[in-house]
UniProtKB/TrEMBL annotation:
GO terms for biological process: embryo development ending in seed dormancy. InterPro entries: LEA_1 (IPR005513). Residues 18-100 are annotated as: Disordered. Residues 91-100 have a biased composition (Gly residues). Residues 70-80 have a biased composition (Low complexity). The lineage of its organism: Eukaryota, Viridiplantae, Streptophyta, Embryophyta, Tracheophyta. This is 18 kDa seed maturation protein-like.
């Protein structure tokens, strides 16, 4: 077996990581589109700058959520969180968390 892990657990971890990466990519894309929309409708340079900052915050949060999910999935596979149960985590946009 691969490093003492069961093959099935590795497959579950990989699938969960793929899902977390896909979700992160979708959140980053949504942030980029929203920024472009806000910049097109804004007339004030300050509003345009705020749209860029907001996008950067959302992109950074999506990346942090992805990394946290990957760490969580690795811990779950290693047996630190239960009997092969895999859960993805997230606190960013679209996860029911609080929004700025």
């Amino acid at each position: 077996m691969q490093g003492g892990k069961k093959v099935g657990e590795n497959i579950k971890e990989t699938a969960a990581n793929i899902g977390a990466s896909a979700k992160s990519g979708m959140e980053k894309t949504k942030a980029n589109v929203q920024e472009k929309t806000e910049k097109m409708t804004a007339h004030d340079p300050l509003q345009k700058e705020m749209a860029t900052q907001k996008k950067e915050e959302r992109v950074n949060q999506a990346e942090l959520d992805k990394q946290a999910a990957h760490q969580h999935n690795a811990a779950a596979t290693a047996g630190h969180l239960g009997q092969g149960r895999h859960h993805t985590t997230g606190t960013g946009y679209g996860t029911g968390g609080t929004y700025p």
